[in-house]
Amino acid sequence: MPDLPPKPAAGVSRRTVARASAAAGLAALFGTAGGTARAAGRTARAAAATRLGPRTLDVSVPSAALGRSAPVRLILPSDFGARPERTYPVLYLLHGAHDDYTSWTRETDIEAFTEGRDLIVAMPDAGPTGIPSVWRGGPDYETFQVKEVPALLARDYRASGVRAVAGVSTGGYGAMAHAARHPGAFKAAASYSGILDTTAPGVPAIMDAIVARENLPAASLWGHPLLNLLTWRDFNPRARATGLRGTALYVSQGSGVGGGNGGDPLPGVLESALWPSAQGFAGTLARLGIRATTHLYSGGGHDWPYWKREFTASWPMLAHALGVPE
Fold first, then answer.
1. Which one of 18, 44, 135, 264 is least enclosed by Cβ atoms within 10 Å?
2. What CA–CA distance (Å, rounded) separates 237 from 304?
3. Contacts of 150 (CB under 8 A, 6+ apart)
4. What pLDDT shows up at residue 169?
5. What is its EC number (predicted)?
6. How close are the terminal C-alpha atoms of the chain, in Å?
7. What digits encode the pLDDT tens for the residues 22-44?
């Protein structure tokens, strides 16, 4: 493992900024008009690692797929330094829209939760939209997350080939899209309020609004949803569902509307907008005979209190796939 500089002083929490961004994104959804992998075989090289705590560090990864360096936050096993001969499974946790790779450590107790569980937790960047895909003529976050980061972890942090992936919102999309488009790359995949059918009625408008919120042209993701329908289908977890056969799956989604916390209606409204997408995805898995644990519940909101609960519910499945204690 590379030498680490001393732990820096703690920064200001981004919770308020993240909530404001989420609200603005939903406002854009209802009020705003509407690549190929590059050098996939090249091994990413870590430019710098910054220690944040005894087990937690940020690594800057030079990426050919992105054309720049991008961060990944790591939580190492408790015995990492004491057992230099050992390799470890990796749990990838993906962030949502208008957030960043720090969200899982900011919003959850993932550091304390994984203490003593003998795994690496990797939280890679997915850009400001949080959509970890191959952008049309732009960055390739899929290759970054599925190829480059694992190559780095295997080389510098003794990661084994055993992996599981989970994500919230657009990160939930990423978890299922990565597992479906790269069969066998992950032993398990979990989505918490993910966008699981990108061509379902109303969902292209949601994707366009997420992109527009970051001042990017809507077509810069996959092109026009009708004129470039084949591309949209190629990156659609529901359309690629056959690739999920043999992967342990967990899918959770609330019906929203009346959900949310603190009287804020926006999380419930957004959750309800994604409800049909999750139902369609779960129905496709059932028709294909692909086993999955589904929790489609009444109410709820597009927010961390629900996602933390669902992560805990999915943990036994993830732990079994990774071969670590529950």
1. 264
2. 23
3. 90, 159, 163
4. 98
5. 2.3.1.122, 2.3.1.20
6. 27
7. 433 433 333 322 333 334 344 44
Delineate the domains of the chain, giving CATH numbers in brackets. 39-322 (3.40.50.1820)
The H-or-E segment that residue 159 falls in is: strand 159-168
Tokens representing residue 41 in the block: 């075989």
Alpha helices by DSSP H, the chain: 15-31, 103-107, 110-113, 141-143, 149-156, 170-181, 203-213, 229-234, 266-288, 304-322
Crossing angle for the helix pair 266-288 and 203-213, nearest 10 degrees? 130
* Rounded Cα–Cα distance for residues 268 and 325 (Å): 34
- Nearest Cα neighbor of 232 from 103, 89, 134 is 134
The structure tokens listed for 236 are 């659609």
Residue 10 contacts by C-beta under 8 Å, 6 or more apart in sequence? Answer: none
Taking the CB of residue 79, how many other CB atoms lie within 10 A of it? 11
Which residue stretches of the chain have pLDDT < 50?
1-44, 46
Report the run of H or E that residue 90 belongs to, with start and end: strand 88-94
Sheet of 88-94: strand order equals: 48-51, 56-63, 68-75, 120-124, 88-94, 159-168, 188-192, 248-254, 293-297
If you search the block for the tokens 């005894």, which residue do you land on? 54
Residue 132 to residue 205: CA distance in whole angstroms: 18
Give burial (CB, 10 Å; 0-12/13-18/19+) of 215.
Answer: exposed
CA distance 125 to 111: 18
pLDDT tens by residue, 283-316: 999 999 999 999 999 999 999 999 999 999 999 9
Q: Which residues pair with 94 in a beta bridge?
A: 167
Tell me what pLDDT residue 26 has: 39
Q: Contact 199/284 with Cβ under 8 angstroms?
A: no
* The residue type at 282: A
